Amino acid sequence: MMTEVDYYELLGCSRDADHATIKTAYRKLAMKYHPDRTGGCQDSEAKFKAVSEAYEVLKDPQKRAAYDRFGHAAFKQGMGGGGGGHAGAQDFGAFSDIFESVFGEFMGGGRPGGGRQQRRGADLRYDMEISLDAAFEGKSTEITVDVSGICEACSGSGATPGTGKRACNTCGGAGAVRAQQGFFVVERACPTCGGSGEIISDPCAECRGEGRVDQTKTLTVNIPPGVDDGTRIRLSGEGEAGARGAPSGDLYIFLHIKRHDLFERHGTTLHAKAPISFTTAALGGEIAIPGLDGEEHVIKIPAGTQSGREVRKRGAGMPVLQGRGRGDMVVHLEVEMPRKLSAKQRELLEAFRETETGEECPQATGFFAKLKQAVGG
C-alpha cells in the first residue's frame, strides 16, 4: 500500500493554520525547490510538485474542507491539485459529490432530484508508537484492529444468498422523499430504506441485513524511513465497511516517536549532549558518537573549547522523508571538571597555575578586572 504524505505536513503547517500562514509556507518551499533554483534536480522538482499540489487544495476553502474530512480520497476521481492545474467539468462533478457529503447535512440532505445514497464506511484512527531507530530505518510491521468488515455470508449485500432486493415502496426506489413546507420543498433521505432505495425481503442471518459484521483484521503497515512524530499513513479501504455494499472507509495510522536516550530530534537534525574532560577541552581531541545508522561518528574537538559549544556533523542526522540525503548531527559539548585528583595530578596543576599569566582565560581575567573597577568606583 502506498504511503501518502499529509498536505499539512508537506507545507509544515498545523491543521488549524489560516490561509496567510499556508500561503507563506508554500512560497518559501516553492522558492526553495523551484527547478530554476535547483539546477533541474529531480528530487527538488518532485518536492516542488508535491508542495504545489498541497497548496492548490488547501488554498481553496471547499477543497480544504473535503480534504480535512476525506483526506487524499477526496480527489481520487481526478480532482487532484498537482502542478497548479485547473479542474475540468468532470473533475468538478466528482468534487461536487464530496462537497455535498460535507455540507449536505446542513441543507436538508441529498442533492436536488434525489437519488440513492450509499453511506461510505467510517474512517478509523490507529495510534502507533515506534522508536527513533525505527523512524530512521523504516520498517514493515503488522497491526491488529477490530473493525466492521464485509459479511462473507452475503458478500456485503445484506440479503440471504439466493434472494434479492426490491424497490422501496415509500420512495419508489429513488432513495429520497419530498415534503412541502410553506413555499419550500424539502428533500430528505427516505426513512423507510435509509436512502438506499431498496428493501431487503430476506435479511442475511449473519449480519442482520447490514452487509457487515464485526471482525478482527491483521494488516501490514509499511513505515518509510524519515517519518516524524505525527506523520499520518493512510491504508485505503481498511476502515469500517459501508452498509449493504457501500464503499469502505480508510484507516489512518498516526505515528508517535518514543523519546531516545541519546538523541533529541528537530526535523532531520539530531541533537546530542556529550561531556568532555577539561584536558580534552583545553588541548583538543576527538570523541566518537554512535549514530542511528550503526556507525561511529568522530567529532573533532578544537583546542580551547568552552562548555556549551556546538559541533555539527554533516549528513549524520535523520533521512529526508520520501527524498534523498540526511540531516545533520549537532553535538552540544559540556566540559566536565575533575572531582578527584591524584597527588601527581594536583602537583602538575599547581605547577600550571604558577605559570598562568591571565591570557589563558581572558573572559575570567576581564570579568574580575571590571569587578575591581566597579567596587573601587
From TrEMBL:
Subcellular location field: Cytoplasm
Q: Where, by residue number, does Zn(2+) 2 bind?
A: C168, C171, C190, C193
Q: Which SMART domains match?
A: DnaJ
Q: Which CDD domains would you find in this protein's record?
A: DnaJ, DnaJ_C, DnaJ_zf
Cellular component terms (Gene Ontology): cytoplasm
What is the UniProt remark on how the cofactor binds and its stoichiometry?
Answer: Binds 2 Zn(2+) ions per monomer.
**Where does the J domain lie?**
6-71
**InterPro entries from the entry?**
DnaJ, DnaJ_C, DnaJ_domain, DnaJ_domain_CS, HSP40/DnaJ_pept-bd, HSP_DnaJ_Cys-rich_dom, HSP_DnaJ_Cys-rich_dom_sf, J_dom_sf
Start and end residues of the CXXCXGXG motif repeats are 151-158, 168-175, 190-197, 204-211
MF term (GO), any: heat shock protein binding
Q: Which domain of life is it from?
A: Bacteria
Key words, A-Z: Chaperone, Cytoplasm, DNA replication, Metal-binding, Oxidoreductase, Repeat, Stress response, Zinc, Zinc-finger
| Residues annotated as binding Zn(2+) 1 | C151, C154, C204, C207
Annotated ranges, domain CR-type = 138-216
Co-factor requirement: Zn(2+)
Pfam families cross-referenced by the UniProt entry: DnaJ, DnaJ_C, DnaJ_CXXCXGXG
Zn-finger (CR-type) intervals are 138-216
* GO BP, one annotated term: protein refolding
Family, according to the entry, reads as follows: Belongs to the DnaJ family.
Domain remark in the UniProt entry: The J domain is necessary and sufficient to stimulate DnaK ATPase activity. Zinc center 1 plays an important role in the autonomous, DnaK-independent chaperone activity of DnaJ. Zinc center 2 is essential for interaction with DnaK and for DnaJ activity.
Q: Which PANTHER family match?
A: CHAPERONE PROTEIN DNAJ, DNAJ HOMOLOG 1, MITOCHONDRIAL-RELATED
Role, per record: Participates actively in the response to hyperosmotic and heat shock by preventing the aggregation of stress-denatured proteins and by disaggregating proteins, also in an autonomous, DnaK-independent fashion. Unfolded proteins bind initially to DnaJ; upon interaction with the DnaJ-bound protein, DnaK hydrolyzes its bound ATP, resulting in the formation of a stable complex. GrpE releases ADP from DnaK; ATP binding to DnaK triggers the release of the substrate protein, thus completing the reaction cycle.
| Assembly behavior | Homodimer.
**Entry protein name:** Chaperone protein DnaJ
Species source reads: Stakelama marina
**Lineage of the source organism?**
Bacteria, Pseudomonadati, Pseudomonadota, Alphaproteobacteria, Sphingomonadales
Quick one: which gene encodes this?
Answer: dnaJ
